[in-house]
């Protein structure tokens, strides 16, 4: 039988992780339990904190996220103590965690907020980059300044932002789906955006209305103390502000999209040369950029499942994340979701007693609300789960705005809003209060009717 941990420190509440989830959790505990000590254990020397919080509407919130030195959190909340160390092991039966610097902490309640790491298409290949934290974003920027052509794999948040932001570098964008951005929006919105994107010189980029993650006060993240082998906290909206995302070429944008394909094989330059010499059955003449007409020698070559091959300087694997549960949670009996996250109920409780989880490390396992889900879009924007018994209404001005609403039984169930529509608050209210809108019919999207005045 394993010996119980001798406590070197103990706290009623212990939180693991200094990202936005862990810090918010520690702050809330500090506010609600002012006489208790809260220990925040994090592998990173900086924390992420919410500032300038504003409640915009019933469920829409606006805030800044700032990176701050760990000491700033302790100054703001005297009952929070930050321990800068990686957690090596959880012993849930003994209610204790072991940290990389050899300390043992006993808890009554533990909240795990250890985040996630990029799920790369190929681990350990120096030409395959993932973007997660300040260091990985800076490494990406460094590589990009020397690049003429890169490949981006994935169709989610990072890929969408990158293809829009990168200039002076050809981008081959490989996606599994028929249309871009299916993680976020529908095929109609994708078409609206694709035509803007592949124009060689898109109009001036849309000014940001939203507040930003700041880089002020950011420290170079020191080597992880305690050797947890984990990285810094995740970036967030506007993460590329302050980064120079420009390659070596003079043109603005040059994007080629390869749909319905995945990466089959990656060759380093020498491997590719040998394979070509042996006349392996490489596909020919699929596209003007395919290797047959491409005389340039590239550091790396990517063979896609649609049989095309592209040479490029490097590959960005924007292919999602894996929750940080290993190795420190091994040996405990957590229920995990399909994505590997710790399953939590609607009280953020995991399947192990006295252990809660929040943020990217967890997977919500409660029944989702019938009209709400977490996306930048509203409600059931793609008629998710509504069956065939629904109607779509559309208002689109090419290059300017795309407004789609999903209606069922006269009620608004979801919406996609692209461009400066100013409809988000009104539509959010209409979705949440489920007002019967049957009498308005198609006038609901009439641009001459000021809906905001009408329904507020
Ligand atoms: C480029 C990019 C852009 C994004 N844009 C958006 C956006 O526009 N909107 C949006 O909502 N979301 C966005 N996200 C996602 C968002 O950033 C994450 O969902 C969120 O930051 C996750 O926070 P977290 O606290 O769960 O995890 P993290 O920020 O990853 O924090 C995890 C913390 O745990 C610590 N840790 C890990 N393991 C251990 C251990 N063993 N011991 C001790 N400490 C440990 C780490 O050091 C870190 O401090 C973006 C993400 C990226 C990468
Ligand atoms: N605005 C926002 O909210 C933003 C959020 N983020 C967050 O940051 C994290 C990382 O972003 P990102 O990497 O873009 O992750 P996402 O989860 O957003 O998207 C991953 C994409 O990669 C695809 N994919 C997965 N595996 C493969 C594969 N082997 N080959 C090809 N495609 C694959 C997925 O397709 P499929 O779904 O079909 O598996 C999906 O289209 C995510 O948690 C994301 O939500 C990032 C930027 C902005």
UniProtKB/TrEMBL annotation:
The keyword Flavoprotein belongs to this UniProt entry's keyword annotation: yes
Record carries keyword Flavoprotein: yes
InterPro entries assigned: FAD-bd_OxRdtase, FAD/NAD-bd_sf, FAD/NAD-binding_dom, FAD/NAD-linked_Rdtase_dimer_sf
Alphabetical list of SUPFAM superfamilies matching this protein: FAD/NAD(P)-binding domain
Top-level division of the source organism's lineage: Eukaryota
Keywords from the named record: FAD, Flavoprotein
A Pfam family it matches: Pyr_redox_2
Basic and acidic residues bias spans: 213-223
Chain coiled-coil ranges: none
FAD/NAD(P)-binding domain: residues covered: 12-221, 293-364
Chain segments carrying region Disordered: 209-231
Necessary cofactors: FAD
Sample GO molecular function, one term: oxidoreductase activity
PANTHER family the record matches: PYRIDINE NUCLEOTIDE-DISULFIDE OXIDOREDUCTASE DOMAIN-CONTAINING, PYRIDINE NUCLEOTIDE-DISULFIDE OXIDOREDUCTASE DOMAIN-CONTAINING PROTEIN 1
Family statement drawn from the similarity comment of this UniProt entry: Belongs to the class-I pyridine nucleotide-disulfide oxidoreductase family. PYROXD1 subfamily.
Protein name per its UniProtKB record: Pyridine nucleotide-disulfide oxidoreductase domain-containing protein 1
Organism for this UniProt entry: Suricata suricatta (Meerkat)
């Amino acid at each position: 039988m394993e010996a119980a941990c001798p406590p070197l420190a103990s706290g009623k509440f212990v939180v693991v992780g200094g990202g936005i989830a862990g810090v918010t959790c520690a702050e809330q505990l500090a506010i609600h339990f002012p006489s208790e000590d809260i220990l925040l254990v994090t592998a990173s020397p900086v924390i992420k904190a919410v500032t300038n919080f504003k409640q915009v509407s019933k469920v829409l919130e606006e805030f800044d996220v700032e990176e701050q030195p760990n000491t700033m959190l302790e100054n703001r909340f005297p009952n929070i103590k930050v321990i800068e160390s990686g957690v090596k092991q959880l012993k849930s039966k003994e209610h204790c965690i072991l940290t990389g610097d050899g300390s043992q902490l006993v808890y009554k309640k533990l909240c795990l907020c250890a985040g996630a790491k990029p799920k790369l298409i190929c681990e350990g290949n120096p030409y395959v980059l993932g973007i997660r934290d300040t260091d990985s974003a800076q490494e990406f920027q460094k590589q990009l300044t020397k690049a003429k052509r890169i490949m981006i794999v994935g169709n989610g948040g990072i890929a969408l932002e990158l293809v829009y932001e990168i200039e002076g570098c050809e981008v081959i964008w490989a996606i599994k789906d028929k249309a871009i951005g299916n993680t976020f929006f529908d095929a109609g919105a994708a078409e609206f955006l694709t035509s803007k994107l592949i124009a060689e010189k898109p109009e001036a980029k849309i000014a940001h209305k939203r507040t930003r993650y700041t880089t002020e006060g950011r420290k170079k993240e020191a080597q992880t103390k305690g050797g947890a082998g984990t990285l810094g906290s995740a970036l967030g909206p506007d993460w590329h502000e302050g980064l120079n995302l420009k390659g070596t070429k003079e043109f603005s944008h040059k994007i080629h999209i390869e749909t319905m394909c995945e990466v089959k094989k990656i060759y380093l330059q020498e491997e590719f040369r040998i394979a070509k010499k042996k006349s392996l059955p490489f596909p020919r003449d699929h596209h003007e950029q395919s290797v047959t007409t491409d005389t340039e020698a590239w550091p790396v070559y990517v063979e896609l499942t649609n049989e095309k091959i592209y040479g490029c300087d490097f590959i960005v694997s924007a292919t999602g994340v894996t929750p940080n549960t290993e190795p420190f949670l091994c040996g405990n009996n957590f229920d995990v979701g399909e994505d590997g996250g710790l399953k939590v109920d609607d009280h953020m409780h995991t399947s192990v007693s006295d252990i809660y989880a929040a943020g990217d490390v967890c997977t919500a396992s409660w029944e989702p609300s019938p009209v709400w889900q977490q996306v930048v879009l509203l409600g059931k924007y793609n008629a998710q789960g509504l069956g065939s018994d629904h109607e779509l209404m559309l208002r689109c001005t090419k290059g300017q705005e795309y407004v789609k609403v999903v209606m069922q039984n006269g009620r608004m169930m979801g919406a996609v809003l692209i461009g400066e529509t100013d409809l988000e608050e009104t539509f959010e209210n209409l979705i949440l209060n489920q007002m019967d809108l049957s009498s308005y019919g198609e006038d609901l999207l009439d641009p001459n009717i000021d809906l905001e005045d009408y329904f507020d």
